[in-house]
Amino acid sequence: MLKRMKLRILYFGLLKDLMGSEGVPLESESLDLPSSFKVADLLQHLRTRRNTDSAVWDSLAVAVNHHYAEASLGLHDGDEVALLPPVSGG
């Protein structure tokens, strides 16, 4: 049997709208995923779940438990993952 883990995902910026539904933004959610997931696997899972090709997925900063994380970082049960899209303005 494949071991599972629970993650808390935090969405920021335009990701709130992208991951929300019916015009209601989504600020966070809990996901139950295979324990073998890395940051890159999580991003691919979320991207395909919403079936979106938005360029934001290619330029996200990811923080795991308040520390910036590389795509190759393995995730663990109870981790909090923040997805931070690029900020623009002037």
Instruction: Give the class-level CATH name.
Output: Alpha Beta
Number of β-strand runs: 5
- Taking Cα atoms only, what radius of gyration do you get, to the nearest Å? 13 Å
Q: How many domains is the backbone divided into?
A: 1
The helicity comes to 10-25%
Query: Proportion of β residues?
Result: 25-35%
Instruction: Kindly identify the CATH topology.
Output: Ubiquitin-like (UB roll)
Task: Please outline the major beta sheet.
Answer: 5 strands, mixed
Q: What's the total helix number?
A: 2
The averaged pLDDT comes out at: 90
Q: Which secondary-structure class do the elements indicate?
A: alpha+beta
SSE run: EHEHEEE
Shape: globular
The name of the CATH architecture is Roll
Runs in which pLDDT lies below 50 for 5 or more consecutive residues are none
Provide structural commentary:
The protein has helices at residues 14-19, 39-49, and strands spanning 4-11, 28-34, 61-64, 67-68, 80-84. It is of the alpha+beta class and 90 residues long. A hairpin with a 2-residue loop joins strand 3 and strand 4 (67-68). The radius of gyration is 13 Å and the shape is globular.
